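Exercise 4. Each item below gives a protein and its sequence. For each, produce the structure-token representation.

Item: Nicotinamide riboside kinase (Aquitalea magnusonii).
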Amino acid sequence: MSLIRIAIIGPESCGKSTLSLQLAAALCSQGLRAVAVAEYARAYYAGRDYQVSMADIEAIAAGQLQAEQHAAAEHDWLVCDTTVLTCKIWADVAFGQPSPALLQLYRPQDYAFTLLTAADIPWQPDPLRSHPAQRDWLLGLYQAELARQGVAYTLLQGGQAARLAQALQALGRADLPKK
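Answer:
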């Protein structure tokens, strides 16, 4: 089977990490070799102060892609908790534009499915989050960039169960075994 990459993207505190774990588990329950690829920014900032430079964003983008490449060695389905698109949006917001080096890493068409999480769930504070009142604005930035790149996406809304069901439907995998 060829590799299938699923991008889960969206504003801060919109359920991406939870959904990536749930979706990977659901795909595994269907007998697929799936894995959730964690958001690399968390590992990157685990051992350093949260100060953002373009070099940090570039390193995070490269680390995210490396994590995907590593996971692809043993899995056919990658459920990616964020992608380089998030780094591009981050660079746009923080610095007005991405660097040429970041754009070299930016390949939104590499994902067979793009799932965009809406900002319709409660904000959860976290040291790596900084835009609690701007999630709808950030969602608009994602939508505009996906449109600019010609990337089709599914907007996921509602609680955890609703989002998982919408994601499985978007993937054509809504045939989960009944428990």
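Check: The longest helix spans residues 54-72.
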